[in-house]
Amino acid sequence: MVGPSATGSQDDAWRTKGSQPSLPEVHGSLRIPMKGSWLKKFLAFAGPGYLVAVGYMDPGNWATDIAGGAMFGYTLLSVILISNLMAVLLQALAGRLGIVTGRDLAQACRDHYSKPVVFGLWILCELAIAACDLAEVIGSAIALNLLFGIPIIYGVIITVLDVFIVLLLQNKGFRYIETLVIVLIFTIGACFITEIFFAKPDTSALFAGFIPSHHIIMDPTMLYIAIGILGATVMPHNLYLHSSIVQTRRIEQTELGKREAIKYATWDSTIALFFALFINAAILIISAATFNKAGMTEVADISEAYDLLTPLLGTAVGSVLFGVALLASGQNSTLTGTLAGQIVMEGFLNIRIAAWLRRLITRLIAVIPAVIVTAIYGESGTTDLLILSQIILSFQLSFAVIPLIQFTSDKKKMGKFVNPLWVKLLAWFVAIIIIGLNIYLLYKTFFG
Predict the structure, then answer these.
(1) How deeply is 17 buried, as exposed, middle or buried, from its count of CB atoms within 10 A (0-12, 13-18, 19+)?
(2) Are 240 and 20 spatial neighbours (Cβ–Cβ below 8 Å)?
(3) Under a CB-based contact definition with an 8 Å cutoff, are residues 330 and 134 in contact?
(4) How many CB atoms lie under 10 A from the CB of residue 218?
């Protein structure tokens, strides 16, 4: 098992030396075959990308996708595609950082910036994780309410049990977590393939929707929802997560070993993110083929969408599949969210507490406000809380993207693995777009 010190002379490029490896209980726990076919090696690396992809299809994305499809048909599919391509680039950089430096993004920030900056970045990141976890908790609670009639306040409390599921699986081995996540992703995908079959979308209009349209920029309402889709798609905590979990593979600490690891990790995250693209696009497609087609352009609420799908699709199976997919999405996201919480606290502060306690703290930070708001304001309050969670995520995004690009573009830190000039320029271009659009989203939310 090789920790951050294995980066050799590149440690001199950091303000402080690396300490313990990220997620020490599973660091380097999965062997990579030294010999064999490329497929065998790829399958050994496959897994972390799917944990990352989960964050791009969590319940926080559903409302924006439903609203976009209901109001504008298939037009905003191009925004989902562009957002996904941005995510592919940023996740490739996160994997590269973890493999080359032996540090996750949180550890890299701790070892590069001054203590006050590190503390500020940690607080912002904890807020983002709490906000993301809040969306997942509420999404799971809504799904339990829709499928089984469990009151949302009790559904929120039930989600605390996820913490112990993660702990149990991680004690058995990291592959168990990856397997469960992949099974849930395919469950969500199967539900939406069936839904699309029932919805019978307009195929030509669907494919035309993937071509960017100038109407998105010209129409203020469309632009607002498009930015919401972008903000909900590119999740900041996933960059910390990916830079850590790629290190669960035990690789050769040589130039060839690292190049091979970067290649396979990039393939893994790229393929997994295209599953996320399909699921986000499917939500919008179903919304366009049912609500927009029926003239119901104001549908934006998850519960309302669930209730309307049965009469519009002509079968009760449609609503049930929608609820099952939402529950699987919420459960999947909570699994990875609790891991991200551990990575961020340990990485920024270099403190170790029991994994179950850290995850319980992460979950309670999300559960307590959700219980209070649900008890006082009812279901309508949880919808407002869901919107607030996405605003917090949008605000924090640039504080994760900028350090990631900065570190992977630094030759002293990355050596021969530094970003090529074209990747560096493209990454900063993407960062400027994301930051600019999210600032606009925040401005419109508070003053628009």
Answers:
(1) exposed
(2) no
(3) no
(4) 9
* Better-scored residue on pLDDT, 91 or 225: 91
Beta-ladder partners of 250: 31
pLDDT one-digit tens code per residue, 284-315 = 999 999 999 888 888 767 788 888 888 888 77
Residue with tokens 């407002």: 384
The predicted structure's pLDDT at residue 63 = 77
SS3 labels along the chain? CCCHHHHHHHHHHCCCCCCCCCCCCCCCCEECCCCCCHHHHHHHHCCHHHHHHHHHHCHHHHHHHHHHHHHHCCCCHHHHHHHHHHHHHHHHHHHHHHHHHCCCHHHHHHHHCCHHHHHHHHHHHHHHHHHHHHHHHHHHHHHHHHHHCCCHHHHHHHHHHHHHHHHHHHHHCHHHHHHHHHHHHHHHHHHHHHHHHHHCCCHHHHHHCCCCCCHHHHCHHHHHHHHHHHHHHCCCHHHHHHHHHHHHEECCCCHHHHHHHHHHHHHHHHHHHHHHHHHHHHHHHHHHHHHHCCCCCCCCCHHHHHHHHHHHHCCHHHHHHHHHHHHHHHHHHHHHHHHHHHHHHHHHHCCCCCHHHHHHHHHHHHHHHHHHHHHHHCHHHHHHHHHHHHHHHHHHHHHHHHHHHHHHCCHHHHHHHCCCHHHHHHHHHHHHHHHHHHHHHHHHHHHC
Rounded mean pLDDT, 340-357: 81
Structure tokens, 182: 């992949």
pLDDT in tens, 162-205: 667 766 776 777 788 888 888 888 998 999 999 999 899 999 99
Spatial CA neighbour of 429 closest among 95, 82, 147: 82
List the one residue out of 345, 296, 300 whose CA is nearest residue 130: 345
Given the structure tokens 């699987």, which residue do they identify?
328
d(CA 225, CA 441): 9
**Residue reference for tokens 């129409």:** 219
Give the global pTM: 0.88
